[in-house]
Amino acid sequence: MILHRLQLTHFRNFASLDIQPGPGKNYFIGENGQGKTNLLESIYCLGLIKSFRASSDLELVQKGTTGYQISGEIYNELSVHHKVAIVYNQGRKAVSFDGKKIARHASLVGQLPIVLFNPEDHRITSGSPSERRRFLDIILSQSHKSYLASLQEFQKILKHRNRLLVNIREGNSKPDELDAWDWNLAKSGHHVMAMRKAFIERIQGPLKDIYARIAARPAELVIRYSPSDENAATDAQGFISALQSHRQAELLRQQTLIGPHRDDVIFYLNGMDARRHASRGEQKSILLALKLIEYDYLKESSETLPLLLLDDIYSELDEKRQSRVVEQLMQIGQSFITSTHIHGDLDQASTVFKIVQGTLEQIH
């Protein structure tokens, strides 16, 4: 997939922008605080219809204005063109595809597959379980529409069920009212867990091999999906049984304690939990291996090359071996790289934009 044109209006610190990226490597060069990451964020929004760092669309609006607009023209390997547009104004968000308004924004997720390398990605290997769940949700939502549908359904039911638990504790509802919610939660929740588990099992071998090549030293890397309750991971009935066994605890805590929102992914390096025992360099190698897996998985599932977004990645990849791996990946498809300066020599397929306070100038 190729992003042929990007237009922004009142997005972050960009009052107006209209650029045509090259089909290969695209560098956004500038000092810190000029808007380099904002550009990657706008491209990410085109693919996933949400930001990777803002919790609300209001945060994306340029100060002093009431809304923003992002539009992108894309084409695939068969030169089929499409246009995606996102318009946010005064609290309302509209998304269109080829000029037609899309009621369900999630239906566009996966049309423009994206892989993001970001300095905050270190949280996947060293942070809380929510970071690893988010990694799984992003890749599986882009590759499987049924996963995204089940995830959204689960989140909606979870919100209602948690509210019901509070009402029961306050004496405004009865415990048996949970039964109907339990069944619906189990159907969507188990589907999410099953797809996560299947994905982890599928990448186990490739992840081990890729890590070994990156680390260039003998090591045994194992990845395991760790459900909040083993019964919940078996089938929908097992999920319901797990909910029933935890009901008293849930009533006391007024929270749903079973489900994919409580699960984790654990990396074992040479038999030890990598989050606690791996060095920073080893964790970087695990993360890079994960990102390469993500790229290959999306390429296979979408039958197109994902866009590669590299946000200040050279500050993280301080080992020559890791930098070479990323350079090889950048040769495959279209990539967007932010940095304070150019690393290495430019080739014919490279496009360079200099960014100063929200304005861009193509210099190569």
* The CATH fourth-level homologous superfamily of the largest domain: RecF/RecN/SMC, N-terminal domain
CATH architecture of the largest domain: Up-down Bundle
Question: Strand arrangement, largest sheet?
Answer: 2-1-4-5-6-7
Q: How many separate structural domains?
A: 2
- N-to-C series of helices and strands: EEEHEEEEEHHHHEHHEEHHEHEEE
State the total count of DSSP E strands: 15
What is the residue-mean pLDDT, rounded to a whole number? 91
In the predicted model, the low-confidence regions spanning at least 5 consecutive residues are: none
Which percent band covers the strand fraction?
15-25%
The CATH topology annotation of the largest domain reads as Glutathione S-transferase Yfyf (Class Pi), Chain A, domain 2
What is the rounded Rg?
22 Å
Indicate the overall shape. globular
- Main sheet overview: 6 strands, antiparallel
Question: End-to-end distance, in Å?
Answer: 22 Å
How would you describe this protein?
The protein is an alpha/beta fold. The protein has 2 domains: 1-113 and 304-364, P-loop containing nucleotide triphosphate hydrolases (Rossmann fold, 3-Layer(aba) Sandwich); 124-302, Up-down Bundle (Glutathione S-transferase Yfyf (Class Pi), Chain A, domain 2), CATH 1.20.1050. 41% of the residues lie in helices and 24% in strands. The protein is built from 10 helices and 15 strands. The strands form 3 sheets. A 6-stranded antiparallel β-sheet has the order 2-1-4-5-6-7, covered by helices on one side. α4 (145-169) crosses α5. It is globular. The two termini are 22 Å apart. The relative contact order is 0.17. The model has no long low-confidence stretch (mean pLDDT 91).
